[in-house]
């Protein structure tokens, strides 16, 4: 019991454990929703959810992105002031969303009602990342379990595929996610608290413009192929390709755990050594993950998702190969955000998106979903390598220090033992 308690106190071990649970539940969710909807309806779902995600990022206005910087400056009551910003943003976002909902005719437009909740959930997620990552981990586990249970009920008791059921499931998940975080952070929804700080809000928007643009660009780099596929191919292709993208996301299991902890550290003080160590370990881990999917990917897709989705295998292998290079971006960008290096990130992201868009239009008509995957591979590779080159130059990091050695393995093993004993 003592060993378990000590391991739970270590942020890396606790967060990695959370990620393992989330990936297992996420795999179950992926199987259920793809089998329930089928390739074509899954294509519609992926397309409309990408609209929701991109719009939610924009409507955030990047306000929350400045929280870590303002926290470093030790501004009085900064936490309470930002929570107040989040509350008023939700009110404003629902007014705008309802206006669009009742004004325009859009397929599956009820999904738009998720946008304000996505905005608030992202804001609360970021707040937990800085304040207490344990709350974020607990919330993610609870909401993912809710998601799994709801999908299980839909799949087995509502056999006729209908996106409206999926909408209600997502609505429930978002409400639970926000509710758990509000409760654990002891935030009272209807208590406006201190006076609205207009000056700080304006400053937060100004500070958040570049992070907002960066997030829009990097999300576009991940999602733009879905929008282009929708125009140049069939929704069935979109659905199959989205499965490859989702499975490729499983590669982020360990890297995301390291990234989340590193962001909290860099919000307080730059930690170059930890970033270097994280890159070494996770690059090698990612290569093993690629090998796993190359060997077992086709078999797993056929067994878990049915033969309808077998075509996802080739784009899956291509995408996860590109994800290996994005390891560099994952860790280095946390430092750039905390260190105020925004403009350079925007330039790298912009070039990456242009590469992605150009190659998508060039390759999709010729190679369909495999072409979209190759475009992502080229874009991801450029993005990751560019971040690595800048990181090495600006922070005087030698390339040799990024290569995993036998002594590093021994170091990780001993560090793990020390972490458990603390």
| Overall form | globular
Average pLDDT taken over every residue: 84
Helix count equals 15
- Tell me the structural class: mainly alpha
| DSSP strand count | 0
User: How is the biggest beta sheet arranged?
Assistant: none
Distance between the termini: 14 Å
Question: What is the rounded Rg?
Answer: 21 Å
Instruction: Output the helix-strand order.
Output: HHHHHHHHHHHHHHH
Binned, the helix content reads over 70%
Low-confidence stretches: 1-7, 262-268
Strand content: under 5%
Describe this structure in words.
This protein has 422 residues and is mainly alpha-helical. It has 15 helices and no strands. α2 packs antiparallel against α9 and α13 (343-367) packs antiparallel against α14 (369-394). The longest helix is centred in the first third of the chain and has 49 residues, at 11-59. Residues 1-7 and 262-268 have low confidence and may be disordered.
